[in-house]
């Protein structure tokens, strides 16, 4: 699967600065480690919309799309809307 | 009425051993299998040296084996103490120490946690682990009481009981304001009284398919489990990760064909927010209950409009009075989003009292403290007579010293309709996602983190679904390199995820009132303004 390092980096920054969570590695399992709970999940979806222009539909709500930063990056990168300023 | 909680399972196993009792993913236990496995676990515990009244901790995610473990502990005349495997080892250590246990029953992906606990010098020799699955080899350094192979060699007959109804069934540890969790002791008779009332009131039958949604350390799970067994019904374990994915949770309710679902408001609100419920969805569902906090009326309207075939019931009650003490079944969908839903009337055998500070009845709809009297009252806090005396008081209208009332710390009033209305807390305890949290425990944990000059924790109403948002304001020590994310990481080593603050503010100094105390009202306002400000900035992006 293609990996988007730039998007991964932006996601890690977003987790740190907006959600106040340090992600140990891009492949860390966010569910098994309890890093991502339902409250944070809602905020994450909001931030993906605001910062990446990606609207997550109900059909996209699969555990595997959100299991790690790598997976989120793979999900977000092809859907990201080109924005004039980030 | 049975004497002990395990009696329901024994009776059903005699009547219909082949009937399904517990379903967890691909794993199923019939009543006959559940009875035999729990008997073998009981014999294993007894042979490992457990005797009447010993505390046995259960460290496992929800699974059919976990349910057998609870019954096994009861059948060994022991006291069940649930340990939440999502808690860090440091907090579990506090519970293990407080309940002075020598045994932990373990199953599932908890080997790292068990190893961490057993490496703690306080527990290295004192605690032995009984394995309910074949993971013993993954934790080779852990002191083992018995492995699954040993369990399988034990007799399938139930040991003779030495316990009676008033004996403790379990100790549930809840957040404590001083930083140490406090243990609420609950007797077999406490749970049996509630379950007898609830199965009758809700008309539960052997054809029911009941959810087990709450984690095991949450006392609502006792009704899921024992209400099901009292009715001879099926218990369907809801996988915990579904709480993050509302669409998957809805699918689970559909595919398991649940007839009864006991949830918490934050989950109902979350699902409403994602709009995952169709009109006339969940055709098998007959009853939807919730407890733990207030369900916002707009969310209730969302649910009731979509599921006209379902009875909706609001239950209320703190852990200290066992599962729930009052109930209110919503007669019809509220028309007004501002309508207040009462906590209703007392369950059979219980009494709700609204009293003033001198413990006199407050009349004419006035606001007072809410007190509970009746069959659900816990014997008290585990080995803490001081704290027990503070909140379990002699009934001011009674003369028998065993006649007690419990001070909930909640504020309430009796409406003109005779129903009781909940009005909030009288102290700093909060509810977030159904969890009861003492802000003092969060503050105590923060005070132990290096690099902070001072800190304070407050809660504000969240605009999200979780009820209250936990907010932390702090002043870094001079020259200290402190970040929000770093603090959160430190705290996650000692507190469970639901107790971690979600909002943070670094300040030059904390606001103080005239007598030098932290001005919590000003802090709350700061967080509220901050949230509005952040929201506005987002929208302008």
Task: Write a concise keyword list for the protein shown above.
heterodimer, A: 86 residues, mainly alpha, Non-ribosomal Peptide Synthetase Peptidyl Carrier Protein, Chain A, 4 helices, B: 541 residues, alpha/beta, Rossmann fold, Luciferase, domain 3, 4 domains, 5-stranded mixed β-sheet, 15 helices, 25% strand, disordered C terminus
How would you characterize this protein structure?
The complex is a heterodimer of chains A (86) and B (541). The mean pLDDT of chain A is 84. Chain A is globular, with a radius of gyration of 12 Å. Chain A has 86 residues and is mainly alpha-helical. Helix content of chain A is 47%, strand content 0%. Chain A has one domain: Non-ribosomal Peptide Synthetase Peptidyl Carrier Protein, Chain A. Chain A starts with a helix and ends in a 10-residue tail after the last helix. Chain A has helices spanning 5-17, 38-52, 63-66, 69-76. Chain B is α/β, with parallel strands linked by helices. Chain B folds into four domains: 31-187, Rossmann fold, CATH 3.40.50; 193-339, Rossmann fold, CATH 3.40.50.12780; 350-424, Luciferase, domain 3 (Roll); 433-540, ANL, C-terminal domain (GMP Synthetase, Chain A, domain 3), CATH 3.30.300.30. Chain B contains 15 helices and 27 strands. In chain B, the strands form seven sheets. Chain B has a five-stranded parallel beta sheet with strand order 4-3-5-6-7, with helices on both faces. Chain B has a five-stranded mixed beta sheet with strand order 12-13-14-15-16. In chain B, α2 (31-47) packs across α3. Chain A binds chain B through residues 15-17, 20-22, 31-32, 34, 36-43, 46, 50, 58-59, 61-63, and chain B through 86, 109, 241, 243-248, 266, 270, 273-274, 276, 433, 462, 464-466, 469, 483-489, 492, 497-498, 502, 504, 538, 541.
């Amino acid at each position: 699967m293609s990996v988007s390092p730039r998007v991964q980096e932006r996601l890690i920054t977003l987790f740190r600065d907006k959600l106040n969570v340090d992600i140990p590695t891009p492949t860390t399992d966010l569910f098994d480690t309890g890093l991502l709970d339902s409250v944070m999940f809602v905020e994450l979806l909001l931030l993906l919309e605001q910062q990446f222009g990606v609207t997550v539909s109900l059909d996209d709500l699969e555990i595997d799309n959100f299991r790690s930063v790598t997976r989120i990056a793979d999900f977000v990168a092809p859907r990201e809307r080109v924005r004039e300023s980030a | 009425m049975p004497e002990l909680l395990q009696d329901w399972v024994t009776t059903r196993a005699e009547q219909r051993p082949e009937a399904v009792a517990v379903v967890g993913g691909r794993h199923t236990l019939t009543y006959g299998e559940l009875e035999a496995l729990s008997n073998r676990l009981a014999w294993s515990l007894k042979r490992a040296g457990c005797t009447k009244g010993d505390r046995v901790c259960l460290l496992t995610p929800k699974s059919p084996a976990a349910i057998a473990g609870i019954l096994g502990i009861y059948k060994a005349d022991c006291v069940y103490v649930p340990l939440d495997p999502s808690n860090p080892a440091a907090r579990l250590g506090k519970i293990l120490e407080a309940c002075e246990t020598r045994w932990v029953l373990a199953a599932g992906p908890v080997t790292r946690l068990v190893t961490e606990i057993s490496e703690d010098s306080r527990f290295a020799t004192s605690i032995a682990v009984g394995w309910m699955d074949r993971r013993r080899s993954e934790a080779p350094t852990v002191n083992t009481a018995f492995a699954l192979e040993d369990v399988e060699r034990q007799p399938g007959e139930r040991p003779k009981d030495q316990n009676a109804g008033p004996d403790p069934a379990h100790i549930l540890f809840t957040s404590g304001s001083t930083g140490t969790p406090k243990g609420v002791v609950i007797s077999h008779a406490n749970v049996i009284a509630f379950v007898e009332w609830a199965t009758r009131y809700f008309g539960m039958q052997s054809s029911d398919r009941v959810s087990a949604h709450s984690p095991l350390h949450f006392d609502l799970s006792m009704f899921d489990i024992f209400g099901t067994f009292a009715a001879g019904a099926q218990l369907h374990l809801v996988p915990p990760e579904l709480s993050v994915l509302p669409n998957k949770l809805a699918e689970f309710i559909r595919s398991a064909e649940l007839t009864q679902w006991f949830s918490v408001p934050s989950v109902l609100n979350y699902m409403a927010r994602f709009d995952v419920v169709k009109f006339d969805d969940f055709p098998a569902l007959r009853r939807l209950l919730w407890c733990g906090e207030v369900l916002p009326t707009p969310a209730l309207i969302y649910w009731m409009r979509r599921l006209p075939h379902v009875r909706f019931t609001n239950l209320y009650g703190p852990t200290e009075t066992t599962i729930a003490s009052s109930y209110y079944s919503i007669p019809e969908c509220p028309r007004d989003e501002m309508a207040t839903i009462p906590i209703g009337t007392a369950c059979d055998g219980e009494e709700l009292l609204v009293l003033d500070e001198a413990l006199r009845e407050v009349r004419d709809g006035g606001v007072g403290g809410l007190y509970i009297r009746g069959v659900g009252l816990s014997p008290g806090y585990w080995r803490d007579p001081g704290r027990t005396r503070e909140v379990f008081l002699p009934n001011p209208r009674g003369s028998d010293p065993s006649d007690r009332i419990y001070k909930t710390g909640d504020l309430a009033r009796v409406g003109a309709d005779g129903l009781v209305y909940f009005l909030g807390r009288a102290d700093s305890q909060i509810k977030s996602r159904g969890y009861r949290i003492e802000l003092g425990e969060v503050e105590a944990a923060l005070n132990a983190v290096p690099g902070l000059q001072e800190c304070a924790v407050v809660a504000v109403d969240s605009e999200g679904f979780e009820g209250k948002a936990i907010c932390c304001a702090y002043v870094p020590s001079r020259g200290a390199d402190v970040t929000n994310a770093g603090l959160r990481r430190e705290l996650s080593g000692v507190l469970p995820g639901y107790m971690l603050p979600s909002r943070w503010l670094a300040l030059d100094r904390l606001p103080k009132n005239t007598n030098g105390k932290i001005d919590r009202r000003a802090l709350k306002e700061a967080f509220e303004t901050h949230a509005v400000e952040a929201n506005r900035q987002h929208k302008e992006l």
